[in-house]
Amino acid sequence: MEGSTAPSPKRKGIPSRADAPRGSTGAGSGGRVGRSRSTRALADALNSLHPAADAAGLIDQLRELEDLKSAIAGMQAQIAVAVDVAERQAQADAGVPAAERGKSVGAQVALARRESPARGSRLLGLARALVTEMPHTLAALHQGRLNEWRATLLVKETACLTSADRTAVDEELHPDTGTFDGCGDRAIVAAVKAAGYRRDPRSVVNRAARAVTDRCVSIRPAPDTMAYLTALLPVKEAVATYAVLTRHADTVRGAGDPRSRGQVMADTLVERVTGVPGGISRVELQLIMTDRALFQGDSEPARIPGYGIVPSSWARNLLSTETPTNPRTPPGQHPATTDPGAKPPIGPADSTEAGPAGGTVTGPKDPAGHLATNPAHRAFDVWLRRLYTAPSTGELVAMDSTARFFTKAQRRFITARDDTCRTPYCDAPIRHFDHIIPWHRGGPTTITNGAGLCEACNHTKEQPGWRAQTTPGSPPRTRRRHTFSITTPTGHTYHSTAPPLPGTAATIERAQIPAQNRPSRRRERSLGRGTLPQEQCT
Hints:
Radius of gyration: 28 Å
Number of strands: 17
Pfam families: DUF222 (PF02720), HNH (PF01844)
Family: Belongs to the Rv1128c/1148c/1588c/1702c/1945/3466 family.
Strand order of the largest sheet: 4-17-9-8-7
InterPro entries: DUF222 (IPR003870), HNH (IPR002711), HNH_nuc (IPR003615)
Protein name: DUF222 domain-containing protein
Shape: globular
Organism: Arthrobacter flavus
Largest sheet: 5 strands, antiparallel
């Protein structure tokens, strides 16, 4: 996904500020936000800086630039609060209810700072605390005595206090006098916690009690086709769970298991959660790859929605697995072989039958000659569904609907195309399928007018002063994929372009072949696994 800004017309529904010149905040070419005279002078000064001649001078420059970064962070905090105040006033003038004012300011801060909406809201909260309640911490930021992260620690550890107590803690610690010079993160957190507890011990205790309600499980991608599964738990449950896994790993290794302690713990966790040895359960795992990568051994990477890019060889190995992987079997080695380079048998032992809605299911045959349905014979079902893209642009072919809500096929289509939330700089999972031009304003239920958004971004888009518009098609070299624009209440416009599908680069190259040698359309394969065939397509 790509994000950029461009000038836009006046906002609708919110009074414009005639005394605020647009030229200083508009967007320039190449997606760079237009700079005011002062920030342009600062940027020019930094661009003209030359590294010092010796190591001592270089270290001095590093320190001075770090101080400058802190000062800039302090100024950004003040500007963010000024934006918040101005937006709330504009919304009040427009008759927006008090409870609804300022809800989208965090999203505007995020776009301006090229951050996710969640990060933007946290930055706005940090700015409010620094400017209105913690002047000494803000001064330390301006002076370079604290960086933005350590200022965040001070704000975070005083979040449970009242405004008056937070200000008192800031006054007691006086970060702008060098209190925390040479201190690490833990020392700063400990000092702030102690000061906060002295001011209001009950609030600190209540905060710990409320923290239990934040328990959750999350997942995020890791390098090399791995992922982090994280659980936020109360300390006693977390310690008990870890102790059980540790004892089991020690027992298994004592019996001669060759796996490492960490491997045994990870495998045991998966087995006990899924209830299946090896962790293969009947859930859907979508996989998007080109037909060339699947059938011809092409090196074009594949993509797993919600995870990202994976090597094509890894994807092919995944799809050729016939039986659940034994946790004790080394990677790349089939359980029935001892050759590390061997692959599960394919070919005559495999069969392909028709699947629903044009899909096909593949897998090994049973003794009667039919596809094996016994879980002992088949690790999972593989459903194939074709996705077509335009040869000249690499964009998925669209489909339309006259209904108010997107159909199941359209939702799968949008998920395959957008991958994650389409708001610039936001990579949260898709939760809502949104009309770019709202339905109540005449927006059609089409793939072109549809976008995958996270819940927060979809609600932000409905706030007063926000607008979205589909972008007309452009020459392939300038606008190859699905694009729409988002305009904020301040009049800044950002463009969102769908991420490239696997094989897009090759498609563009083939678009330059003479017409008589050019294929009319390119076919891609979308593969999934699970027990609900109608859901196994992207």
